[in-house]
Amino acid sequence: MMIERKEQANVQWFAVQTYSGYENKVKNNLEQRIASMNAEDKIFRVLVPMEDVVVVKDGKSKQMSRKLFPSYVLVEMIMDDQSWYVVRHTPGVTGFVGAGAHPLPLSDEEVRDVLVKVGELEAETPQIVVECQVGDSVRVKSGPFVGAVGVVSDVNTSTGKVKFVLSVFGRETEAEVNHTELERV
């Protein structure tokens, strides 16, 4: 049990170069080789990253999928001599990305970006720190309401927008601006 956890810590993603147009064929060949050579405990996933795009041609839009990285397949694996051999000697594979015979793993950020683009992970939306709270008096620093003073009625930390009530021509009006356009009074 302890050995499995130690090995799991060494799981990394690697980029494998293929012949152009053979990415899906390499993926299928590699999955068959993994099963036939009993490498399921070392090679876990083979991914051809695809994204959906809308192409406009002759005034008509058409949704289609395209490869994010033509001529490359991503492989999640524990790198050792056996797993390297299985991947490297798969028909259609020209080599690993890296210096010489030393494959370089993808960074966690690169993997996260790819998985977000293919829809396997949700993009992390950072919370925006807004200096004002509901009920605070604020003054507008820029934009169409510059110089106006009002009271904050709502704060959205995911978009950074602040709603506030101000007086326009003697009437109370609610306006929404970016939090960077406001200062507390």
TrEMBL record:
One of its GO terms (cellular component) is cytosol. Residues 10-118 form the NusG-like N-terminal domain. GO terms for biological process: DNA-templated transcription elongation; DNA-templated transcription termination; regulation of DNA-templated transcription elongation; transcription antitermination. Keywords: Transcription, Transcription antitermination, Transcription regulation, Transcription termination. SUPFAM superfamilies: N-utilization substance G protein NusG, N-terminal domain, Translation proteins SH3-like domain. It holds the Pfam family KOW. It comes from the Bacteria. InterPro entries: KOW, NGN, NGN-like_dom, NGN_dom_sf, NusG-like, Rib_uL2_dom2, Transcrpt_antiterm_NusG, Translation_prot_SH3-like_sf. CDD domains: KOW_NusG (cd06091), NGN_Bact_1 (cd09891). Residues 131-158 form the KOW domain. NCBIfam families: nusG (TIGR00922). Participates in transcription elongation, termination and antitermination. Belongs to the NusG family. This is Transcription termination/antitermination protein NusG. The gene is nusG.
